[in-house]
Here is the input.
Amino acid sequence: MRSDIVIENRETRLVLADDARVLSLLHRPTQTECLAPGTDIRAFSTLQHRGYGGNIGPRVVPASEVRREGDRLMVSFASLVNRAVIRLRITEAYIGFILEKIEGDASFAAGTARPAYYNEDTLPFDELIFLQLPVKARGRFGDWLNVAWDDRVAVNLLATDPFTRVDAVSETGRHLLRAAAVNQIRREGIGAALIVTDTAHLLDRIDQVEDDFGLPAGVRSRRRPEAALSYWKVNDPVTAANADRYIRVARAGGLRNILLYHRAFARTPGHFPWREEYPHGESDLRAAVDRLAEAGITTGLHLHFTKAHVDDAYVRPVPDRRLNLRRHFTLARILAPADSEIEVLEDPSNSTLDGWIQFRPPGRATLGMQPDIIEYATSRAAGWDCPISIIATLRDLEATPRTADNLEVIRRWEEVREKHWLTAEQQRELQRASPEHTLLVNEAGQFELVPCLPIPIGPPASTARGVLFERRDSVWVAFWDTRGTSRLMVRLPTAQLRRFRELGRELAVEGAAAGTVLEVSDRHYLHVRGATAREVETALATATTLPVRPSAPSTPSIP
Here is the structure.
């Protein structure tokens, strides 16, 4: 007779058969079944990456029996002499599964001959999966937290320590959530927490797990106001001598977080030896961080603790035997502009992609960072109330003519997000890929959000760039030069034009017999009266280039 095992708290009911098959995973308040239909999965299994005792791996050995003894699950595996003892920790917020012990079963203890391949220190498997659940796909999946959710219910399998390997195999209609002990890392005394809750309370439940198991306070950190702020990732040394330069740039961009990459202070990842800019090591770095803190800037560290540089002591002169190799991937097909996924020929499992916005100066193959480019990124991020992260060296910032304008764009959007200035309708509009938008500071010093259209200015070789928008029943253009300074002849009557550095700060307009001479440098605004958007667009596209005056001032790129 089958004897099912029921493990439950006020929100979750997990039912296992005595042969370890997963029968049900219920969200009790809504009576929602969270298991994928039509699955026949054992909750526990072992994995051999290579053969043992004449077997050729990899080989999966599923659990053959499970029984409950108080707050412990006793799990046996077909064809293995080992048994896993899993202690349950049932709370109202989660159900904990702690792999307490791996031991020989009763027949082994009674004197059954040991297999020739068995060794007390080298178990006949490489991984023991001490919980796996085939959960129904719920529309959204977060692989960092290992959670499947929709607007109503969330199912989460979370590691309770740094040694458990938690992951998921995503298939059509389901996600196989798994928690495993890796033999070479730690095979006992590790655990995972199962959370099945209404989605609105997921972070509350994770917060309880973090508190109970002494984990870093991820939820509380996530909920801090500072977590919503954008940051500047710095790869070069920040010292007490140059900290004020970083402070000036950060303030110009409204950035209050600086993230120091390991290259900023260490010669190589791995052993992290100090760079020569820090002759006194930590005390020198601390002096720079203290200077940033005095200016109201929070400093964080970005360490690649899983990587070692080829010049690090882990690699030279004798490579450490624990090293994995850098991975390279081959595109399976040519990328198209509309692609959202990258297909490669190799297996990309356990690989990640970085997602910073890189500031580069203009060059032969690139426009470099421009105000409309950074505004597109910051505006779309604001639509989701999301911070941005930039990478920029002082050298590249100084070599980019429009750095001051780029930083002003970032500053405006940071302030808008921090003040929650956007309406719900504006946020929905910004969540769409188009049209683009620009954030103005109007004549009254107030923010004003308008849709805009990137337009060509001048002949193909022109270095001018701009966006066109309409406000107050007339046409406006924000324009600048991508590489420094230029002059254009625009076939529009001077009487129709008003030029502004910022709205409300009007500048003179130079007239000419053929139209109007437009000085182009840092970002300015042009107000065109008595013309349609199409007429203005055509006039700017057909503008001709004039020689630059030798005395034309150059705007400093860094404030």
